[in-house]
Amino acid sequence: MPTVLYALNAALQNALASDERVVIMGEDILDPYGGAFKVTRGLSDSFPDRVITTPISEAGIVGIAAGMALRGLLPVVEIMFGDFITLIADQVINHAAKFRWMYNDQVRVPIVIRTPMGGRRGYGPTHSQTMEKFFIGVPGLRVLAPNTFSDPGDLLSKAIFEDNDPVLFIENKLLYLNTIHDSNRLSEFEFFEQTPEPNFYHHSKHNGTIADLSNNYAPTCMLSLRDAPPPVLTIAAYGYISEFAYQAALNLAYEYEVFTELVYPTQLSPCDMGAILSSTKRTGRLLVVEEGTHNLGWGAEVIAQTAENLGSRLLSARRIAALNLPIPASGPLEEAVLPGIEHIIQAAQKMV
């Protein structure tokens, strides 16, 4: 199966080949370099007129892309590191996300802004942050985060061609070289096998399956342990941290006989709550996991909405996230700040 990096690159190749309106812009994206994480490698050789390298001005890149989108193009912007999205905040929040409302629904701004997020690469405090929470809740902006349990390339393609509003597309750095789980074996009530065992049921929101509780194009995946007692805990996560939640679920089942249901949304904003609420109604307990800092993040919003919807049926809820500190450059200190598998296991044990 392909890696996430391959899937994203192929999606961009296909987008450029299939529609002349697609334009890709960013810093150092031309061949042979192909971008800091090589997602754009090979694109400028094949499409030299529509893969554009830019000066180091994130606000300028996004501003130009917004103008292109207003004139009918489909720009895809790469911000080299997610830490730099603070520099695009004005262009996104006060311009691209508002133009549809400001101009009486007569214009659209179909811009996709891709950017890598996350730590565990030793890049230090200015190149390791997970900062999407600063854009969650912005009216008119969709925030997406792919994982390996659905097709990241398909998600990117739909963001480019099916979304007429601006999209912030979050790519965790550690996901790039991960292999995508075989979607042909992940249809509803079929099993997918992973070493070590066991098998999980995998329910995708596509095609009207059990988790199809939202009306957007971004999939939500639900996984339940095969032939196990009913789950007593829902674990919700997104992006790369979903891999940690998966490993924690295996450990909890085999070592502690704590059975969980996993929910992995790819749409963070507007907050996609359907599958999370459905699962938590069954389990009564919700554990949310994210790599961003603990305070005022995606997990806090998810728990707040769950409490509002379920009331006393929510027996317990807890957040796991990074400490409220800058990300250290030292590897051991970075691991101490960021959430890991053991944090999930310990929190789950306390909740049940």
Describe the structure.
The protein is of the alpha/beta class and 352 residues long. It has 2 domains: 4-175, 3-Layer(aba) Sandwich (Rossmann fold); 183-351, Rossmann fold. 32% of the residues lie in helices and 20% in strands. The chain is built from 11 helices and 14 strands. The chain has helices at residues 4-18, 43-46, 58-70, 89-96, 99-102, 152-161, 241-256, 274-283, 298-310, 331-337, 341-351, and strands at residues 22-26, 51-53, 74-78, 112-117, 142-144, 167-172, 191-192, 200-204, 220-225, 233-237, 260-265, 267-269, 285-293, 316-322. The strands form 2 sheets. The protein has a 7-stranded mixed β-sheet, sandwiched between helices. Strands 7-8-9-11-10-13-14 form a 7-stranded mixed β-sheet, sandwiched between helices. Strand 1 (22-26), helix 2 (43-46) and strand 2 form a beta-alpha-beta unit. Helix 1 (4-18) runs parallel beside helix 6, helix 3 (58-70) packs parallel to helix 4 (89-96) and helix 8 (274-283) crosses helix 9. The two termini are 36 Å apart. Mean pLDDT is 91; it is low at 183-198 and 205-214.
